C-alpha cells in the first residue's frame, strides 16, 4: 500500500513536519483552579506527538480571558513551568507544538471572572447558551462593552502571553480568532456595534485583532512561528449568521494578515463539529488563494477527504480534533487503515487521566519518552 501523501513529511516555512496531520486544539478542562495544567497532560500530549504539528488546547492569556472552568492559562509562573514540562516531553518524542492563545470575551460568566466582574466584549450583547463554571452550567449574562482605552491593555496581555509561550519552549503560537471568542466578537458586525475606531467599518472591526497579531509577531520575531485560527462560516452560539457579509469581512482579514508573514491560517470549514456545508457568501478556496502562507483545513476530515483536498490544492495541512481524543496513535491508525475509536462525550471536558491520557493505541499502550 503506497503511503498517503498526507502522511509524508512536508516543509512549511522553516518547519519540517513529519506529516501533514495536525492535532486540532482541544479544550479538555483538566487544569486546576489556578489554570495550571496537570503533570499527566505531558503523557496525553506526548502520546499524540505522531502528529506533524500539535496545536495545544486553547490557553487563557489572562484571568479576564477565562470562560470555562479548569482551562489552562499562560500568565503565571506556575503555568509557564507546567507547560514547559509538557513541551519538553513533546520534543523528546520528536513532536512540535504551538500554543493556542485565548480570550473568551463574552463566552464567560462572572463566576469565572476576577472579582466576579462581568465578562467583557466588543459590545454589551448576550450570547445564547450556558457557561461551564466550577458549579456546573450557568446561563450566559450580558457582557460589559470594553472602553476604548482598555483595549491596549488587552493587547499587552496577548504580548505577555506570547512571551511566556516562548519562555515555555513552544515552537510557535496560534492566535485564536475563531468560534466567537473575543477577537471574533470584534470582527463580526452582529457582536460589534461600537462607534469608536474599533467598530463600524470592516477596517475598524479588524483593528483590535490586527493589533494583537502585530504584538504577537513582534514577540516572535515576525510571523514565521505564528498562525491564526478563523471560523468564517460558523453560526455559534445561536443559529443565525454572525456577520452580514462574512466573505467581505474575512477576505479583508486575510488580505490584512498577509502583511505579517504568518506561517499559516487554520480554518474551520463549515460549522464546527456539525457540517462541512458552507453557507452562501463564504468561499474557503478564495480565502486560501488570497492568503500567502500555509493553509490548515479542519472539520470532520477523514484521510480520504484530506487526500482529495490536497490533490485539489484546497489545503496544505489537515487538522483532526475529535479523532485525537480516543486515538492517541491517530497517524499510525490512518497509515494502517485501523478503525478509529470514539470518545464518549462525558470524557471530553473535566476529570482526570480517565478518558484523557489512558486511551490505548491499536497495539497497546502508547509509549512516551521522557
Ligand atoms: C472537546 C473539544 C474541545 C475543543 N476545544 C477547542 C479549542 O480549545 N480551541 C479551538 O480552536 N477549537 C476547539 N475545538 C474545535 C476543534 O478544534 C475542531 O475544530 C472541531 O472539533 C472540528 O474538527 P473535528 O471534526 O476533527 O473534530 C474543540 C472541539 C472539541 C470536540
Question: SSE layout and pairings?
Answer:
Blueprint (H helix, E strand, L loop, with lengths): L9 E3 L2 E3 L3 E3 L17 H7 L5 E8 L16 H16 L4 E6 L17 E2 L8 E4 L2 E4 L4 E2 L5 H17 L4 E6 L4 H6 L14 H18 L6 E5 L15 H12 L6 E4 L16 H7 L3 E5 L4 H9 L5 E4 L2 H4 L3 H7 L34
Parallel strand pairs: 3-4, 3-14, 4-5, 5-10, 6-9, 10-11, 11-12, 12-13, 13-14
Antiparallel strand pairs: 1-2, 7-8
Helix pairs in contact: 1-2, 3-5, 5-6
Flavin mononucleotide binds next to strand 4.
Bound molecules: flavin mononucleotide
The chain-level mean pLDDT equals 96
Give start-end ranges of low-pLDDT stretches: none
* Helix vs. strand class: alpha/beta
Our measurement of the CA-to-CA distance between the termini, rounded to an integer number of angstroms, reads 33 Å
CATH-defined topology: TIM Barrel
Strand content: 15-25%
Name of the top-level CATH class = Alpha Beta
Largest β sheet strand count, sense and barrel closure: 8 strands, parallel, barrel
Describe the overall structure.
There is one protein chain. The protein has 370 residues and is of the alpha/beta class. It has a single domain, classed as TIM Barrel (Alpha-Beta Barrel). It is 28% helix and 16% strand. The chain is built from ten helices and 14 strands. The strands form four sheets. The chain has an eight-stranded parallel beta barrel with strand order 3-4-5-10-11-12-13-14. Strands 1-2 form a two-stranded antiparallel ribbon. A two-stranded parallel sheet has the order 6-9. Helix 2 (77-92) links the parallel strand 4 (53-60) and strand 5 (97-102). Helix 1 runs parallel beside helix 2 and helix 3 packs parallel to helix 5 (202-219). It starts with 9 loop residues before the first strand and ends in a 34-residue tail after the last helix. The model has no long low-confidence stretch (mean pLDDT 96). Bound molecules: flavin mononucleotide. Flavin mononucleotide binds at residues 24-27, 57-58, 100, 176, 178-179, 229, 268, 272-273, 298-301, 320-323, 348. Flavin mononucleotide binds next to strand 4.
Amino acid at each position: 500500500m503506497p503511503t498517503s501523501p498526507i502522511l509524508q513529511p512536508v516543509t512549511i516555512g522553516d518547519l519540517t513536519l513529519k506529516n501533514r496531520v495536525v492535532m486540532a486544539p482541544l479544550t479538555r478542562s483538566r487544569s486546576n483552579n489556578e489554570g495550571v495544567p496537570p503533570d499527566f497532560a505531558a503523557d496525553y500530549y506526548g502520546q499524540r506527538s505522531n502528529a506533524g504539528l500539535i496545536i495545544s488546547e486553547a490557553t487563557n492569556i489572562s484571568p479576564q480571558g477565562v470562560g470555562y472552568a479548569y482551562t489552562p492559562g499562560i500568565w503565571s509562573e506556575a503555568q509557564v513551568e507546567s507547560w514547559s514540562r509538557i513541551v519538553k516531553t513533546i520534543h523528546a518524542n520528536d513532536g512540535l507544538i504551538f500554543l493556542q492563545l485565548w480570550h473568551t470575551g463574552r463566552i464567560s460568566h462572572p463566576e469565572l471572572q476576577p472579582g466576579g466582574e462581568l465578562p467583557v466584549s466588543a459590545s454589551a450583547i448576550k450570547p445564547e447558551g450556558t457557561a461551564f463554571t466550577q458549579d456546573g452550567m450557568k446561563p450566559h449574562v450580558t457582557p460589559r462593552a470594553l472602553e476604548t482605552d482598555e483595549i491596549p491593555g488587552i493587547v499587552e496581555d496577548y504580548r505577555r502571553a506570547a512571551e511566556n509561550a516562548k519562555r515555555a519552549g513552544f515552537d510557535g503560537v496560534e492566535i485564536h480568532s475563531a468560534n466567537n471568542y473575543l477577537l471574533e466578537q470584534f470582527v463580526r458586525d452582529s457582536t460589534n456595534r461600537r462607534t469608536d475606531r474599533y467598530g463600524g467599518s470592516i477596517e475598524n472591526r479588524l483593528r483590535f485583532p490586527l493589533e494583537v497579531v502585530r504584538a504577537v509577531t513582534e514577540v516572535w520575531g515576525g510571523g514565521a512561528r505564528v498562525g491564526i485560527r478563523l471560523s468564517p462560516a460558523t453560526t455559534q452560539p445561536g443559529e443565525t449568521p454572525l456577520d452580514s457579509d462574512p466573505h467581505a469581512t474575512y477576505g479583508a482579514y486575510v488580505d490584512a494578515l498577509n502583511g505579517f508573514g504568518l506561517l499559516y491560517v487554520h480554518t474551520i470549514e463549515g460549522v464546527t463539529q456539525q457540517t462541512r456545508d458552507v453557507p452562501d457568501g463564504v468561499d474557503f478556496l478564495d480565502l486560501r488563494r488570497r492568503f500567502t502562507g500555509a493553509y490548515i483545513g479542519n472539520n470532520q476530515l477523514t484521510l480520504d477527504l484530506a487526500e482529495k483536498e490536497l490533490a485539489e490544492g484546497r489545503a496544505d495541512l489537515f487538522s483532526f480534533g475529535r479523532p485525537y481524543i480516543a486515538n492517541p496513535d491517530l497517524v499510525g491508525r490512518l497509515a494502517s487503515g485501523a478503525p478509529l475509536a470514539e470518545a464518549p462525550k462525558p470524557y471530553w471536558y473535566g476529570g482526570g487521566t480517565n478518558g484523557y491520557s489512558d486511551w490505548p493505541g491499536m497495539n497497546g499502550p502508547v509509549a512516551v519518552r521522557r
